[in-house]
Write a structure and sequence with these properties.
This protein has a domain of 93 residues: Transcription Regulator spoIIAA, CATH 3.30.750.90. Helix 4 links the parallel strand 2 and strand 3. It contains 5 helices and 3 strands, in the order βαααβαβα. A 3-stranded parallel sheet has the order 1-2-3. The protein is elongated.
Amino acid sequence: MTNWYTKAIFYELYPRAFADGNGDGWGDFIGLRQRLDYLEWLGVDCIWMTPVYPSPLRDDGYDVSSYYGIDPKYGLMEDFKLTVDEIHRRGMKIIMDLVVNHTSDLHPWFVEARRSKDSPLRDYYVWTHDPEKYKETRIIFLDTEESN
């Protein structure tokens, strides 16, 4: 495999704000497909798509509640597949922003881990009752979340 990415032109795409194809005020896959000619005209080689997975959207979709689906605000899984096919048809690549260093508190792993200290998923997360223990830890989303 070649190092295609070393010379590629990437376009970071936040679907929610990129193009609204159905007029509901929320960007979606329909709108994205309608704008692919524009991205092709720009010379984009690869679209870096920020998260479109189901999420309570407390940190712009990076708080994933399921890694196996598409948030219905963007469309259906079939819409996503059609969008990927259209991207590839134009000779472009797509990279999905997959957030694996944290989940939503609604994700089944977190729900299960919180349910019991004996949960096999408990070690997926950092837990403490001591607010001083991680006092120096930088809070990433100050405007939306009280803690990491």
